Amino acid sequence: MDREGADRAGPGSSLRSLLGKRTADVLAKAGLVTAGDLLEWYPRDYLEARLSTARLREGEHLVVVAEVLKAVVAPVRSNPRKKLLRATVTDGTTEIDLTFFSHWGPAKDLTPGTLAVFSGRAGTFNGRWQLSHPDYQVIQDSVRHQQILPVYRSVDRLTSWQIGTAMGIVLDAVGELEDPVPDELVRRHGLCDRTTAVRLIHQPRAWGDLTTARSRLRYDEALVLQTALVQRRLTAARDEGTARPGRRGGLLDAFDAALPFPLTEGQRVVGEELAHDLASPVPMHRLLQGDVGSGKTVVALRAMLQVVDSGGQAALLAPTEVLAAQHERSVRAIMGPLAEGGLLGGADEATRVVLLTGSMSADARRRALSEAASGQAGIVIGTHALIQEHVQLADLGLVVVDEQHRFGVEQRDALRAKASRPPHVLVMTATPIPRSVAMTVFGDMETAILRELPAGRSPITTHVVHQGSGTWMARMWQVVAEAVAAGRQAYVVCGRIGDNDSPSGEETEDGFVEAPPEGVEGAAGAAGAEDDLGARGHEGSDARAGARRPDAMSLLQAYDLLVHATPQLEGVRLGLLHGRLAGDDKDAVMRRFAAGEIDVLVATTVIEVGVDVPNATVMVVLDADRFGISQLHQLRGRVGRGEHAGTCFLASTVEPTGDDGDVPVAWQRLQAVAGTTDGFALAEHDLELRGEGDVLGASQSGRRRRIRMLRLADPRDVELIAEAREDAQDLLRDDVGLAAHPRLAAWLADTLDDESAAYLERG
Ligand code: ADP
Ligand code: MG
């Protein structure tokens, strides 16, 4: 290699200049373009190279560092035109015979005296150890004594070992790395310098080196992340918004006076926080978490009314048309005459509530748009796509985003652009968010939590049933039938619609997403993007089992089953709801279900969030093992919302006991859901089972994954993130631009550069 070039190399150097075009082109396919990119391609595992074959057993996978004693190319006895390379190597104590069918490469590499790592399945022949066409890597002097070998995710046709070799070249070339973390912090946390950490993670000499390296790299990740978030928050706090203090004797007071129930303590406290935020000109930026049924809508509505009382408008954005329409109905119902501004029978202080959906008639839409633009409508409800793209508002003061924790920074920014001054923003989610995720993904927002449920809620009992058992299923349908006979209603949920399901993309509203095979990073990201925190299928091990399992029951199959093969449900009025119905039809089905004209609604997960029909008491989830834990919790939250107790059945074709007599993981997960109704506990459990890769899916699919080392489910890392957050706050307190820490500022700019949006996107 060109020495001079090497001396000048740094993290920004191109891999092409360091490794040559061929290798660089392959690495570029994984988005690895610069030396810095490659250095962050951390090993996914490590192998201990055994120097001794003493403990070797037949059939075991062997990784051994050995020296070539002899190597001969010889014809195959049965087919003299074919040739083999036969080599004998030794690890110092034992000789091992190797055979390679393609002899050209190995014959060139494995000359006597060469030291290499060999890996393959060990066997014996005539009392001698053998490896047939093993993988091997010739050992350079620099790693001659390396006994812990990194294993990299391969990139295209570059194997782990080839990447390891490339890594060695790059590590040698770049020399010292600049340390972006202020010395004081490095010292205080007892960390090693960054160069050492990067070296040790790729070329550890002892297992303890990995601990040292990881501590540092984890901290770095946490610090970049938190510095970005805190910076964003401090910058936003300097925005000039509009104070919306409300007024005495206005809509809000009239609303409170007419409210048929007392607010819960939590609703009252959070309500006061929001009122306080809205009264300030600093734009509010809050995440409201509240378990299913905790009464977030009332809290949001009260905030909206305060804004209307201050002369502004509020937009309520729902993820689906079904939810938007339901919100409009319930907002109108609970506001009564207060929503009939300017109309006969409307109250004096009343405003108007308009709904905007993609499927409304052109006429109705024009009217709604004009009321929004003129300011006559104080409250505009719709799906966010629609409102973001088409609506002009006279004076947007507050945006409430319901059930959409994925509502990201980008979307928030787009909305801001709609108003002359940034509006207040309230994001609501019923999927409880583990603390670590709240700190990382939502770190730029204040949070508020509604923990208690309104009084008088009925308990929900959850049963896990075996879908393959006729008896269990008959009993389950019997419970549904009895509920219907008693005047109640039920949901039957399936993961997919029918035979010609479109690939995801159209399926934003329904459908679980099958977990991609392990190690398929891009796929995990893509799936995550379609999906929310809870909507992933099962973890990897189940996914593989899933591939062999028959398809999950489709909506149409389930409907068929209920109509033709379930005598218990004879005469029961069934309805079908899924994301591919036209908006009007969806709405009509929901209305009929809400009005009690449909007894059993067979649906996809369109009903997952927010749907509120208090008379529904039974929830049946078919193939429940294919849903995420949080998603099941959401689905279960659709029942038990009224005075009647709820029952939830989680049905699964997985056998309750595996071949070995153990309870399969899939079944355990369902039992975890059945075992508690505490959404926060389930969210933590979910994170543990699925890992942060899935939870952060969308934000991690960018060119460079930002969270590689941190384990959001690990309590120690959660602490670390909290510490890094405090550090970031200290650094930025009087220096938002990081003027005193130019290296950190540069690093931040570099890492967040092209994918800051993707990275921070999940809001
Ligand atoms: P979620 O937090 O899941 O969005 P909702 O806002 O839909 O919950 O509220 C669920 C139901 O509880 C609604 O029917 C709502 O009217 C009712 N509700 C809200 N607050 C209270 C309260 N303080 N007391 C009694 N019922 C309430
Ligand atoms: Mg809700």
Comma- or semicolon-separated keywords:
single chain, about 775 residues, alpha/beta, OB fold (Dihydrolipoamide Acetyltransferase, E2P), Rossmann fold, 4 domains, seven-stranded parallel sheet, six-stranded parallel sheet, 28 helices, 21 strands, about 40% helix, globular, disordered N terminus, disordered C terminus, binds adenosine-5'-diphosphate, binds magnesium ion
Report on the architecture of this protein:
This protein is of the alpha/beta class and 763 residues long. It folds into four domains: 50-145, OB fold (Dihydrolipoamide Acetyltransferase, E2P), CATH 2.40.50; 176-238 and 706-763, no CATH class; 251-450, 3-Layer(aba) Sandwich (Rossmann fold); 460-701, 3-Layer(aba) Sandwich (Rossmann fold). The protein is built from 28 helices and 21 strands. Helix 8 (194-202) crosses helix 9, helix 11 packs parallel to helix 12 (296-309) and helix 17 runs parallel beside helix 26 (715-732). Mean pLDDT is 81; it is low at 1-6, 502-548, 694-705 and 754-763.
